[in-house]
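Aim 2 progress update. The chain analyzed this quarter is reproduced below.
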Amino acid sequence: MKMNDKTVLITGSTDGVGRYVASRLAAEGARVLIHGRDVARAKTLIDEIVKAGHAAPTFYQADLSSLSGTRELAAAIIRDHHRLDVFVSNAGIGSQNGGPQRQESMDGHELRFAVNYLSGFLLAHLLLPLLKTASPSRIVNVASLGQHPIDFDDVMITKGYSGSRAYAQSKLAQIMFTIDFAEEVKGIGITVNSLHPATYMNTTMVRAGGITPISTVEQGGAAILHLIEGDDVAGRSGLFFNGMNEARANPQAYDADARGRLRALSLKLVGLSSSK
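Predicted structure tokens:
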């Protein structure tokens, strides 16, 4: 996919791998929509892109730990743009951000499940009309090799909580949604894929977890860019990649009953009807 004049939304793109991908796509002539919570970080990124001679990206400030904030972001995108060629669901928090204790979102959901999974789930549904208009278009969900099966009796992990389990559950939920949504939009020119970009990249999230980085954002960014613009994945959907290579996720991802339970729960939590 040639990115010149394509409109691309990347959540969580004022820092880390999302920032790198935004810069690369701006250099390729894309109309880049960046998202984050920090206005100063966004301004620094915009200034760098403009200084390099490329069109300034548009910044959308939103807190994705809030479903109302997520809806406001979608409404702003729909207000400002009539099409969306690529949606990269990249925003997320790690296993230790904010401390090791269990935390909840503004809506009372386990925080990692809310930010890493539910916000992208809701945005994909709300932005679907713009993605349809831009067909062939792509959704890329930035997940992880760290995956933990969902306990449907305690999805919000009120018992036996750990940050690593919460993070890994949210990432498996993203992959399950990828497979499920790929089926839902099959035949209308939208592909949906997920990936583990690279292991322990040199990002704020990784450092906040007290982990020594072993990969670069450039390595992870290259894997994300592959799913955004690679010709070899055009028309291929519902897949999980480890870096550049197609891989298998946790077995629960391929359990249709589990995906159906997750879909029903997620639609209820975000306030969408099953027919939407």
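The two ends are 29 Å apart (CA to CA). Residues 163-184 form the longest helix (22 residues). These observations will guide the mutagenesis experiments scheduled for the next reporting period.
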